[in-house]
Amino acid sequence: MPLSPLAHRMRTLMTDPAAERPDPLPDVSQLSPFDLGTLLPLAYRAAGNGVAGGMRFLVEDAARQRRPLFTPEACLDLFVALVNGLNARKWADLCVAAGALLRCPDGPPLTDLAGPARTLVRFLLRAGRTDHPYALLTVAGLAGLDAQVARTLERGRGPIAVGEINLLRDWDVQRRALLLEVVQDRSYNSPPPLSDAWERLAAIPEYVAFARTTLEAADARIAAIHAHELAYQADRAFDGAEKETIGRAVRLALLRDEPWLPDLLTRLLTGVAVAPTAARTLPSQAVLYEVGRAAQRFPTPEVIVALRAASSVTRHKAVPKQLDRMIKRAERSLADRVEVAFRMPDLGFDTDGRLSVPLGDHTAVMTIGDDVELTWWQGDRRLKSVPSALRRDRPDEVKQLRDLVTRVRRQLATLVRSLEAGYTGEAVHTYAKWRADVATHPIAGAVAKRLIWEIETSPGHWQSVLPDLHDVTGRPIAEPGPEARVRLWHPSRAPLADVTAWREHMTGRRLRQPFKQAFREVYLLTPAEERTGVYSNRFAAHVVDYQKLYALFKQRGWETDLLGPWDGGDAGDARRVLAGGHWRASFFHDYLPEEGDYAATDQVRFHHSADGEWREARLAEVPPLVFSEAMRDVDLFVAVTSIAADPEWVDRGEDRHHAYWRQTAFGDLPPSAEVRRDALARLLPRTAVADRCTLTDRFLVVRGELRTYKIHLGSANILMEPGDVYLCIVSARGHDAKLFLPFEEDGRLSLILSKALLLANDDRITDPTILRQIRDHREPPPAPLLRIDD
C-alpha cells in the first residue's frame, strides 16, 4: 500500500536526525488508515523530546482516536519494533500488537510473527508483566506458549475467570484478539475498539454458552452465600477478574436479549445487593455496578427492573444514588434499541389503564393517568384512605399494592426517558408493533395518548396524529397498514402553523404531556455559527454555579470530569453521545478560581463517528434534530445554573460579576424562554389575574395594587416600576395547584405564574421581607442594562 506524501514526510521527520521541527505541525487527520498503520512502528521506535519524539506523539495520538489499518509488512514491522524496544522500555504494548491482528485486511503473517511473539511473551513473563492478560494470551497463541501463559494467569484468579482463560485457549489468535476489543483495561495507546466487536462475539456459539454458564455459576455462588453455605465477606464474593468476566457475560446476554436472562439477573442482582446478615455491606458492590454499566451499553426493560429491585433491597446508603444514575443512563440508551424498548408487562391492567383488586368487602382500584393513583372503595363509595380493617387484617396485600404503584411509576418513567431520548436517533417503528406495544398497551398507552405521533401515509409524507388516529383538527385519518412507519412528532420537522395548532390543542384539552413536546424548543443554526464553522459560542461567557452544573451534567447523561483548584482541573468539557452513537456533542467550560464555586461556559462542538473514529464536524453537517436536542440541553444547563437564575446572588456575589448578573437576569430571551412566553400567552387568559397581566418581549408585566412588576421570562427575576428596582422573592407564595400547565421541566414556568398570582394581589402580601422591598422607595435606580451585540 503506497504511502501518501504526508506520510512520507512524517516518516522522514521521525527517522532523519537532521530534520527540523515543522511549522505548522503536520495535519495528521489527513493521514489514511494505512498511513497510520505504517507509521505506528516508526513512532514506537522514535525516542527523545526532539522532532522525532514530537512526531511520535502526533502519530500515537491519531492512532488512539482513529482506526489504523496494517499491511502484512506493517504488522510484522510493529511486532519487530516492540521487540527492539524491550531493553529500553522493559515492557511492550501487546494490546497494540494484538489489535493489529484484526486490522490487517489481507491477513496477518502468522508464521512470520511467531518468532517476535515468542520473544515478547518470554520477556514479559520473566519481568512479571501480566497487566494486560488477554493481550498476553493472544500473542502467546502466535508463540505457541499457551500453556505457560495460562498457568501464570490462572494464579490468583477465581474459577469463573479461569473458565474464560480455558475457553480462549481453544480459540485461534484472531478470536482471542476480538475478545480483547471488549476488555475494559486496554492499554492507553490502543486504537478505538471495533464497532462490531460485540456482535461478532455474540455469533460465536461457544462464547454464548459460556456466558450462560458463567452467570449461572455467579447466581449459584450468591445463593450459597445467602444460604450460609459459603462464608460471607463484604465485597469479596467475586474477585476483580471474575467481576470483569461476569460483566462481559451480561453484556453478551443483553445484546442477544436471551430469554433466560431476566429471572436469573433479578436473582443475582438482589442477591449481590444485600448481605445475608443485618450488615449494611454487600456481597459484591463491584458486580452490581458492573451490571449497571452493562445495562447502559445494552439496555433492556427487564435489566432496568432488576437494577431497581436491587436498589430497593440494599441497605447501603450510597448504592441507590449510584444505581439511579446508571438506570437513568440505561433508560436513555434504551431508545436506540427499538426492538426491545417498548417491551413492558401489563401487570393485570385493562386497556383503560385500570386494575381492580377485591379485598374482602373492599376494592383497591389503581388507575393510570398523568400519574398512578391508588384508591379504596366500599361498594360504590370511595374512601378517603386505606380502610382500617385492611390495615389490620391484610397489611401484606396493602403493601404489595403500594409497591405495585411504585413499580408502575418506574416503568412509566423508563418509557418516558427512552421515548424522549429516541429523538436524536429518529427512532421509527412499524404501525403494527407501535399499536400493540404502545398505543393500546394498558400501561404504555397512558403515556402514548398524551403524545403527538407521525405516521408515514405515503413515501416522505408524514401525518401528525394522536394515538386515536385523529389529527390536530379532530379529523380522523384512515388506519394505516401494519408496516407503515410511525415516529414521535417533533416541532423542528413541522410547519409553524402545525406547531401553533398542536400547542393550542394541548392547552385547550388540558393534556399535560409526559415531556415537553408541543412546546419543545427548536434550535436552528445561526449566521454566526455558520461563520465559526466548527463551534458555537451561543452559550459561551456565562457565569454558572459549578456544583449545580456538574450535578445537572450527570442528571442529563453528559459525561465529564470534575473540575476544581487542582492540577488539570482548570478546564474541561461535558460530552453526550447522541443518535445511537453516531454523534457526540461537547460543551466546554472553565473553572473560575475565586471565592464561591463558579465556572465560565465556552464553546459547543460536535464530532461524528465513522468507522469507529470520532471526527470533528462542521455545524452545518450536524443533523438538525441532533443539533437542536444537544443545544437544548446546553440551554438548560445555562438557564438553571447561571448565577442570574439565583435571586439572592446579587446580595452575596462577586462584584466583578454584577454586570453579567444584571444583563442575563433581565436581558434577551433564549429559546427556552421564548417557548415559555408562548405557553404563558395561552395560559394567562385562563387565570383570575388575566386582566392584570401583559406580555412584552422579555417580561410578564403584572399590575398590582401597590406597584407594577416586570417578571423576566428567562430568569423569573423581578423589577418594580418606577425605576426598575429589583425585587427579591426567593420562593413564590400563593401558587395555584389547580392551574393546568402543559409541561414543566425546570420549574420556571410555574415559578413565573406563582409570582404573577402573588404580585397581582400585592395588597394581600403579609411577608415582611417582600413588603419592605415593595414599599421602600428610597432605593436609587440601578445602573442601566448593558447590551452585548452578537
UniProtKB/TrEMBL annotation:
Entry-linked InterPro entries: DUF4132, DUF7737
Domain DUF7737: 673-774
Superkingdom of the source species: Bacteria
DUF4132 domain sequence ranges: 381-558
Name this protein carries in UniProt: DUF4132 domain-containing protein
Species: Planotetraspora kaengkrachanensis
